[in-house]
Amino acid sequence: VQLVESGGGLVQFGGSLRLSCAASGFSLANHVIGWFRQAPGKEREGITFINNRCDDIFYQDSVKSRFTSSRNNSKNTRYLQMNDLKPDDTAVYYCATGLMATVIEKYYQYWGVGTQVTVSS
Predict the structure, then answer these.
(1) How does DSSP assign the chain, residue by residue?
(2) According to the model, what pLDDT value does residue 85 have?
(3) Which of 44, 77, 82, 98 could form a disulfide with 108 if both were Cys (CB 3.0 to 4.6 A apart)?
(4) Residues 25 and 11: beta-carbon distance below 8 Å
(5) What is the rounded CA–CA span in Å between residue 118 and residue 74?
(6) In this predicted structure, what is the pLDDT of residue 55?
């Protein structure tokens, strides 16, 4: 069982990135996917989740209207499209899978190792 994030990098203020979360060893089709981030010197925070039917999607206010979660079941992959990026979005971004639609970390079982997103001002 493995989750691998990709798509991070350095981007200028106002730019966009799309993060991917690819799963191997199990199907994401029946799991909730949460995206979390940890900025330097701060605790990790949950920013969004999308449930398996894509009919329950939550975004924290800090990313609402700028970030969009989506999925591709045929590729067993979930995506986080990030637009209008700001320096405050600089963090290591993680995807995780669970069975409960929440941004509370303890309800997520499998985690990726994270991908760095850096937004320059």
Answers:
(1) -EEEEE--EEEETT--EEEEEEEESS-GGGSEEEEEEE-TTS--EEEEEE-TTSS-EEE-TTTTTTEEEEEEGGGTEEEEEE-S--GGG-EEEEEEEESS-SS-GGGEEEE---EEEEEE-
(2) 98
(3) 98
(4) no
(5) 30
(6) 87
Distance, in Å, from the CA atom of 63 to the CA atom of 47, rounded to the nearest integer, reads 7
Q: What residue type is assigned to position 34 of the chain? A: G
Burial bucket for residue 42 (CB in 10 Å: 0-12, 13-18, 19+): exposed
The token pair at 117 is 């997103």
Question: Do 94 and 112 form a contact (C-beta atoms < 8 A)?
Answer: yes
pLDDT less than 70: residues of the chain:
none
| C-beta of residue 91 within 8 angstroms of C-beta of residue 115 | no
**What is the phi/psi pair of residue 75, to 5°?**
-100, 0
Tokens of 15: 């730019």
Give residue 54's pLDDT: 83
What residue has token string 């669970």?
A: 98
In terms of Cα–Cα distance, which of 43, 47, 76, 73 is closest to 59?
47
pLDDT at 52: 86
